[in-house]
Design brief:
36% of the residues lie in helices and 22% in strands. It is an alpha/beta fold. The strands form three sheets. An eight-stranded mixed beta sheet has the order 5-11-10-9-6-7-8-12, sandwiched between helices. Strands 1-4 form a two-stranded parallel sheet. A hairpin with a 2-residue loop joins strand 2 and strand 3. About 5% of the residues have low confidence.
Length: 260
């Protein structure tokens, strides 16, 4: 008869970081660097997973000859299918991608920008776009940058636009009318798609999936003309990929805005 104090097996999602480490440690004890190479996980992932498995008492740290090893305890675990979330990168794969080192070293310059040069770079990127514009910005009003994007998406240039912003209800009351007008204008455009996220705070412009500008600047007249803003422009492929991963990550909590 089993003891009433016997612990139930701890549930571990299949193919998660924790599961991948446990499969290796079920074979034999290993050092951290061995776990990284054998599982092809990042150092961050192994560090995060080992800490959690130690807390769950599924593994423990042991020191042998001044070296640290990880090894399994006698506690059992049960492998279960992880929950899949619709319209988002599943499980931990987005973190793996974000932290994965690029196979080819990039030597791409990063251009720091501030003040009027920051606004001018936004406008230059928009005007030079050939295929796509992704604008991620929580706050909008009518200004020369809005005019530049609107011209691009309204003319027959085949430039598609994805706008991710806050819903009007999450904007300062004084700015709600103009914010909604801008959303409506892009919704009416055949080449634009609009999504909202309640807690969006990022400010990103990505053009043609190869030019990115990440800054502190809202898409408002006050931010463009008088606020002390700073940003960086780059054509780094890894930065572009990180932005795409970020969009996928927040997609579960985004609402698509369509024309009634």
């Amino acid at each position: 008869m089993s003891s009433g104090n016997q612990k139930k097996p701890i549930k571990i999602g299949r193919d998660t970081w924790r599961h991948r480490l446990l499969k290796e440690l079920d074979i034999k004890k290993k050092k951290k660097e061995w776990l990284i190479s054998d599982t092809n996980l990042t150092s961050f992932a192994v560090h995060s997973a080992t800490n959690e498995l130690i807390e769950k008492e599924l593994i423990k740290k042991v020191e042998e000859k001044d070296e640290i090893f990880f090894m399994r305890t006698s506690l059992e675990y049960e492998v279960v299918e992880p929950k899949k979330k619709k319209n988002s990168v599943e499980g931990e794969s987005w973190i793996d991608e974000l932290l994965e080192e690029t196979e080819e070293m990039e030597d791409k310059a990063v251009l720091p920008l501030h003040g009027l040069s920051l606004a001018a770079k936004h406008e230059q990127m928009i005007n030079s776009s050939k295929n796509s514009i992704i604008l991620i910005n929580p706050f909008l009003d009518k200004n020369n940058l809005y005019d530049a994007i609107f011209r691009k998406t309204k003319t027959k240039t085949n430039v598609n636009m994805l706008l991710i912003t806050r819903p009007t209800s999450r904007v300062n009351r004084d700015n709600r009318k103009i914010h909604q007008q801008i959303i409506d204008a892009f919704v009416d455009s055949e080449n634009a798609k609009v999504f909202t996220n309640d807690y969006l705070h990022a400010k990103i412009l990505l053009v043609d999936k190869n030019k990115s500008l990440i800054s502190s600047m809202n898409f408002t007249r006050s931010a463009i003309s008088s606020s002390k803003e700073f940003g960086i422009y780059t054509e780094s492929k890894s930065v572009v990929n990180s932005i795409i991963i970020f969009i996928n990550m927040i997609s579960e909590d985004m609402t698509s805005i369509v024309n009634d």
